[in-house]
Amino acid sequence: MHQNMKNNLHFFYTIAMVIACASCSSNEANKNTEVLKVVTETAQESNHGRSESYVGTVEADVAVAVSFTGMGTIKQVHVNEGSKVRKGQLVAEMDKTQAENALATATATHKQATDAYNRMRQLYESNSLADIKWVEVQSKVEQAEASLAAAKKMLEDCYIYSPIDGIVGKKMLHAGETALPSQPVVTVLSINKLKVKASIPEKEIAHINTDTESNITIEALGGKSIVGGKIEKGVMADATTHTYDIRINIDNTSADILPGMVAKVELLHQDSINGIYIPIRAVQRGADGHHFVWCINDGKAHRNNVGIGKTYGDRIEIVSGLAPGEKVITSGYQKVSEGMSVNAE
Asked: How many Å separate Cα 215 from the centre of its chain?
């Protein structure tokens, strides 16, 4: 009796183990046959405009050197580098002691000549003054008026004002220094409209004209992107680098772009290139250094080594290894292996 119970227990234990193993085998089989879901794109030929990138520098559209017309000691400069100024705003003033003295002298001389003119006029009108004396009196009045006007102009020239709206680019002279005639005190830059200067190799300059489309990226402003305007193309090459300068006009209504900032210049040429272009993210680089993509053939993933060309935004040119009509995995390729069953969404 006891022996039969042991035999029965052994039998049930064996059956349970068999069922458990069968269940595990079934789960493992289901796991192995699970199909990975991926996103694909069908490779096809398309046209992309050719683009070239260059490094550029922002320049002011207009730069004006502000200076005194006469010589003297600078009393005060009212602006600093980077200061915004309006047209007509006082920029600097010169010590005006000498100009004020000259004006006082000229004013006194003019008054004296005018008084003499008024007295002599009565004599002349009563025929008591010779014509030659009357001419002398008139000449002295004219000379006094000219001297007075010159003295007033000399005093006015002790002040200089901004000729345009803009910002102060550079401050060359300071209070206490002697300014010479036409020696710049500050430069004022107009920044409502700017230009981006770039150097173009001579073999590429022929493809650029005034209407070539361009895109300007300013990294200093967090990658701010601006559509460029008309292009001014230089006609003389640099003798050392064999490059030609171009200047692209841009609007700066927000006034946040400043002269001297470095810019990435992308020129979009009007001619186009036929080829196969796929998302850049789909192209990987293997341990052997070759670029490759995952393609789907008959529901299986296969690795295709490819040759790559230039990038155009978020897409890249495939020059070899991929034919039109092939399905390229663009998402979910991280878990793909050679020959794996995949399901394209």
From this structure: 9
**What is the distance between the alpha carbons of residues 247 and 193, in angstroms, rounded to a whole number?**
12
Name 289's Cβ contacts closer than 8 Å, sequence gap at least 6.
none
Tokens of 53: 């990138």
Task: Note whether 81 and 40 are same-domain residues.
Answer: no
Q: What is the largest CA-CA distance in the chain?
A: 174
State whether residue 100 is helix, strand or coil: helix
In a domain, 31, yes or no: no
Determine what percent of the chain falls in helix, strand and coil, rounding each to the nearest 5: 30, 45, 30
DSSP 140-151: HHHHHHHHHHHH
Domain that holds residue 247: 53-60+193-270
Distance CA(176)–CA(77), nearest Å, equals 10
Report the alpha-carbon distance of residue 98 to residue 65 in Å, rounded.
Answer: 25
**Is residue 238 domain-resident?**
yes
The 10 Å Cβ neighbour count of residue 2 is 6
- pLDDT higher than 60, residue 9: no
Is 4 among the domain residues?
A: no
Write the CATH number for 312.
2.40.420.20
Do 241 and 176 lie in a common domain? no
d(CA 339, CA 252): 56
Is residue 183 within 8 A of residue 244, CB to CB? The reply is no
What pTM, to 2 d.p., does this model score? 0.56
Residue 284 has pLDDT above 70, yes or no: yes
pLDDT at 1: 46
Among residues 255, 270, 285, the one where a domain terminates is 270
Q: Which of 123, 157, 184 is the last residue of a domain?
A: 184
Q: Are residues 69 and 175 in the same domain?
A: yes
Q: Which residue has the tokens 């020129």?
A: 267
Average the pLDDT over 69-93 and give the result. 95
